[in-house]
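Readers of this paper often ask what the protein records in our data store actually look like. Such a record has a labelled line for the sequence and another for the backbone structure tokens. The tokens are whole numbers drawn from a learned vocabulary of local backbone shapes. We quote a single record here, exactly as it is kept in our systems:
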Amino acid sequence: MSAEDTSWVFDSLVAFLNGPIWNAPLQSFVEEKSLMTFVDETVDKAPEKPANFKPIEASKPC
């Protein structure tokens, strides 16, 4: 198979990931979780990270 024959697979994947079925839930998740992490400029230190972020950060490779 040549690259031209299989390029539709990549194009379909990109179209799916940019579509509303995938993008809307992902965008709402990011917006919902981002609101919790804003730092108040009047406070000297950043707030503690919410408990649901700690497992994500613990699993990140160094």
